[in-house]
Q: What sequence folds into this?
C-alpha cells in the first residue's frame, strides 16, 4: 500500500479512503488488467470432424 500510495502522491492512510484494504486494491487491479481480454467462450469450431473425406487413403491388403 505504501508504494501504491506514494506513486499516486498520497499518504498511505489517505489511500484507505479509496479502498478498504490491500485485498480490495489487488482485486481492483486484477479486474482492470483483465477487462480488455475477451473471455467469451468460443463458438462451434470447424474441426476435423467436419471433413468429408479422410486425409489419407485407407490401407489395402
A:
Amino acid at each position: 500500500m505504501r508504494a501504491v500510495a506514494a506513486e499516486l502522491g498520497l499518504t498511505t492512510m489517505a489511500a484507505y479512503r479509496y479502498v478498504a484494504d490491500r485485498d480490495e486494491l489487488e482485486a481492483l487491479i486484477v479486474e482492470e488488467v483483465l477487462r480488455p481480454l475477451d473471455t467469451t467462450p468460443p463458438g462451434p469450431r470447424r474441426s476435423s470432424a467436419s471433413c468429408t473425406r479422410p486425409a489419407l487413403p485407407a490401407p489395402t491388403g
